[in-house]
Each structure stands twice: as structure tokens, then as C-alpha cells.
Design brief:
By secondary structure, this protein is an alpha/beta fold. Helix content is 50%, strand content 13%. The structure holds NADP nicotinamide-adenine-dinucleotide phosphate.
Length: 292
Amino acid sequence: MATGRPLIQRLCIIGVGLIGGSLARALRDAGQVGEVIGCGRGEDNLQAAVRLGVIDRYLTDPAQAVAGADVVVIAVPLGAIEPVLRAIVPSLSTDAVVTDVGSAKGSVVADVQRIYGAIPPYFVPGHPIAGTEQSGVEASFATLFQGRRVILTPLAETSAAAHRLIQRMWQLTGAEVIDMGVRHHDAVLAATSHLPHILAYTLVDTLARLDDRAEIFRYAAGGFRDFSRIASSDPKMWHDICVANREQLLEMIALFSVDLERLAAAIRNDDRAAVLATFQRAKRARDNLYLD
Ligand code: NAP
């Protein structure tokens, strides 16, 4: 617990779910936040957030919730970011810094550009590379970001002071903070996160529509459980990510489809060397990855 003046006097979290709730918990544990105001649409989740000590109080009107906050974190699904931004602009404090946690960054920057006509210096786009397949404040926990990476995609217009504050905020959660360009972020995440989620959802959907699905799922072993876990993620959130990162995701799906078809052809043609070589290459790559 830190002593003295906390880094953030009044934090407003719009969207007190897994990510927003975990951030509030981590900053509280670090003793680096004065008051935490929550905002969302459903009072049940917000009341649970108060009960769990994640936030001090809440408002359901984003414009009222941001009044007097020195840091505003927008942690709603990507499709809700634009209306939230529009609602809060008139009531932000003059020295407020605004950031988001959206899983794609190009769409958020485009939203901001559309609303303001330019990128305001106090806006710092961000994305914590941490999460689970659970949603809502009850699923949040203070150590979610420990040892994880948070990517910030500051723009030429972003003020150095706002950037530093958001960097510091995430460092206090135990995360390593990295800067990246917006397009590069979206390309990297399309490959490492968005494509795997599409594959998991599609695999489970394909199997779940087979006539003998009950039999198939009854005998599902560890491999299927590991591979399919992320298909339990929130469908609306992933719908929004597909819409937001459409272009980069389609490129990855096309690349993967070519490789899948190549493997299918090798199996069809009894090209055993090609099948084995694919699996050997993949095993080598997977074994050399740092994954926890
Ligand atoms: P979550 O647990 O479902 O939380 C989202 C919160 O936003 C909910 O508390 C919801 O509460 C609120 N909300 C939804 N629509 C809203 C709206 N129109 N206006 C105001 N509040 C609204 O989701 P999450 O996993 O924390 O994800 C939040 C953001 O983090 C997303 O943009 C996602 O892309 C990003 N992200 C997620 C992960 C992950 O693995 N989960 C990782 C990194 C980044 P109400 O329904 O009560 O409004």
C-alpha cells in the first residue's frame, strides 16, 4: 500500500466488467487511486461492483460519471465505444486523461477522429493483453495484468504527459507496457488472438451441429477442452472485434485457409512426408514459444 497522494485522485471506469473491474482492483491494491466511480447500463453488475469493493459508487449516465475524474477508462465492448465517447465529451474535466482497453485499435482511433474531427491530446488508446473467457465484475481479479503486456498505441497528437500517466497506471498493475503503431497492433492481434478465437468458435459450432454431437462431446478429451476454452468467451464482444478488425482478420483467415487446404490435399493424396513436415514445423514453433 502506497503512502501519500495516489497517482489518480478520481478514476472513472465505464464498463465495470472483467477488464475494467480488474484494473480498478489492481490500482486499489497498489494504493494508487483515491475514488473509483463506475458506470454501466445494468445496475445489478454495478451494485455487485460496490459490494465487492471494486468501485466506491456508480452512475448509469456516462456524462455524469466522468465529471471531476482525472482519468477515464472506457472498458466497454468495441461497438459501444463511439456512443460512450460522444456522451462524455461535453462533461470531461479540462485536465482529464481518457484511455480505452479495446481489443482492436484502428476502429477506436477512427471513432475518436469522427467525433472530435482530430485526435485530442488527452486520449491514449490502449489494450491489455490479458483476459479470461469470463465476463462481468464478478470475474475480475486484481492480479489479472501481473506479468502481462499492455500495448499503448499513442498517436502523434497524444500529449507526452497523458501517455506517461497511462503508462504508469498500467505499470502499477504489474504489467509491462509497450508502445506500438495502430496498424501493427491490429495485424499482430489478428494473428495471435482474433484468428484463434474464430477457429475455436467455428470448430465448436461445426461439431455442435453434427447429429451425433452428444456422443462427440461426451468423449472430448483434454486437447479439445484446451482448444475450445476460448469459444466460451462473450459472443457480443467477439462479434464487435470481428467487425472492428475486419480487414486484418480476413487476411489471416485467408492465409490460414490456404494452409488448411494444403494440409487437406496432403492427407487426400497420401503425401505422408508433407503431413509429417507440417506437424514437425508446428511442434518446433510451439515448443520454442514462451507461453504460460
Ligand atoms: P465485460 O466483462 O463484459 O465488461 C464490459 C462491461 O461494459 C460490462 O460491465 C457492461 O455492463 C458494460 N457495457 C456494455 N455495453 C455498454 C454500453 N453500451 N455502455 C456502458 N457500459 C456498457 O467485458 P470485458 O472482457 O471486460 O471487455 C471489455 C473491453 O475490454 C472490450 O472492449 C474488449 O475488447 C476488451 N478486452 C477484453 C479482453 C478479454 O479477454 N475479455 C482482453 C483485453 C481487452 P452493462 O452490461 O451493465 O452495461
